[in-house]
Design a protein that fits this description.
Bound molecules: S-adenosylmethionine, iron/sulfur cluster
Distance between the termini: 34 Å
Number of helices: 15
Number of strands: 15
Radius of gyration: 21 Å
Largest sheet: 9 strands, mixed
Strand content: 15-25%
Strand order of the largest sheet: 7-8-6-5-4-3-2-1-9
Length: about 375
């Protein structure tokens, strides 16, 4: 097992407000006890080091929630503790919101050890930012990206498109503006309506309408064409990188590598005698309690069956442009033929890839594979 790579994920569960589209494990709290969080993260790292000190950490990711609300000191203490047990990897990402106070902390995050930021811009249009419940303006977003560029060599940002009333022309102009900022990486997600969110209720009441299937397809094709024109590799369904700037951390998920998930609700996949799926306690309070009572945040650790492993490997890998090797897979011949006959996927030398129309219907393809 020595030197086997693994990613390391830390979840920061707090946000200043809840965005109406978001179903991530994020909570709004007036305040939190910084020392309790520091102790719990450090204790979690010691717990993992006892079991996995012989591994190589290939990437670290602070996700959320809004990790840019963490204090740079907390991030630094976490990284120092990691460094006591392992060598730090070159890619250490922190997700950031573009509110001005957080952008002003970017330099301090770099000094704390962060090497890459991923900024949640979502839109460059003020009316749509308001619709998305964001607390920043497009001007603040642009300023935050200026700071990101001046502080980090490796930086990325997210936009959400296929928004109500969005036309091909308006998206083209917004995306062109975004790419002129010259990011190394960009994540472009079509707006999805998730169960349990405020948008789910509003959408059910028809208070807004999403672009229909044809327009969504055209928006996706346009996105691919524009990002390619600007020299980006569309290496995953919603992720685009300048050569060499693909996210190592996310690639490890999609290639079904091992990773430890630390923090409220964090998931992990880790192989010892078996491959196991892990999940930590979801609410911030129950996670802190678990650290006190059991010395780690785990709620569930389940051994994955060979069947689970084969299915998960396909579900993750098919999202990648490079595709997924299905030689040992349990995908039935009927399903494979259906995917190819419907022109959703391409099979070549045992590598299964989504076709351009399959990429657009990724969720439907994944549901079909699981059915
Ligand atoms: C954990 S969230 C972002 C972190 C950070 N708190 C922020 O809001 O900027 C990761 C990204 O997922 C995307 N996202 C979340 N919910 C989405 C949805 N329902 N539809 C499309 N994209 C979504 C957003 O682009 C968001 O930046
Ligand atoms: S999108 Fe980001 S800021 Fe908004 S609720 Fe989700 S995690 Fe928090």
């Amino acid at each position: 097992m020595t030197n086997l790579n693994m990613g390391l994920y830390f979840h920061w569960p707090f946000c200043l407000s809840k965005c109406p589209y978001c179903d991530f494990n994020s909570h709004v709290r007036e305040k939190h006890d910084e020392n309790a969080w520091l102790d719990s993260f450090l204790k979690s790292i010691d717990f993992e080091a006892n079991r996995f000190q012989d591994r190589n950490i290939s990437s670290i990711f602070f996700g959320g929630g809004t990790p840019s609300l963490m204090s740079p000191q907390l991030v630094q203490s976490i990284l120092e503790k990691v460094q006591k047990h392992w060598k730090l990897p070159s890619e250490i990402t922190l997700e950031a919101n573009p509110n001005s106070i957080e952008a002003e902390k970017f330099k301090a995050f770099k000094e704390a050890g962060i090497t890459r930021v991923s900024v949640g811009i979502q839109s460059l249009n003020d009316a749509d930012l308001k619709f998305l419940g964001r607390t920043h303006s497009s001007l603040e977003a642009l300023k935050a990206l200026d700071i990101a560029r001046s502080v980090f060599n490796n930086w990325s940002f997210d936009l959400i498109y296929a928004r109500p009333n969005q036309t091909l022309e308006s998206w083209e102009s917004e995306l062109e503006t975004a790419l002129k900022l010259d990011p190394k990486h960009i994540s472009l997600y079509q707006l999805t309506i998730e169960q349990g969110t405020a948008f789910h209720k509003l959408h059910a009441r028809k208070e807004f309408i999403l672009p229909d299937e044809d327009l969504s397809a055209d928006l996706y094709d346009l996105t691919t064409a524009i990002t390619r024109k600007h020299g980006f590799n569309d290496y995953e369904v919603s992720n685009y990188a300048k050569p060499g700037f693909e996210s190592a951390h996310n690639l490890n998920y999609w290639r079904y590598g091992d990773y430890l998930g630390i923090g409220p609700g964090a998931h992990g996949r880790i192989t010892t005698d078996h491959k196991r799926a892990t999940r930590q306690f979801k609410s911030p309070e129950s996670w802190l309690d678990a650290l006190k009572t059991q010395g780690n945040g785990y709620q569930d650790i389940d051994i994955l069956t060979l069947e689970d492993i084969r299915t998960e490997r396909i579900l993750m890998g098919i999202r990648l442009k490079e595709g997924v090797d299905i030689q040992d897979s349990n995908l039935s011949k009927d399903k494979l033929s259906a995917l190819q006959n419907e022109n959703l996927a391409i099979l070549e030398n045992n590598i299964l890839r989504l076709s351009p129309s399959g990429r657009l219907k990724t969720n439907a393809v994944l549901d079909f594979i699981l059915s």
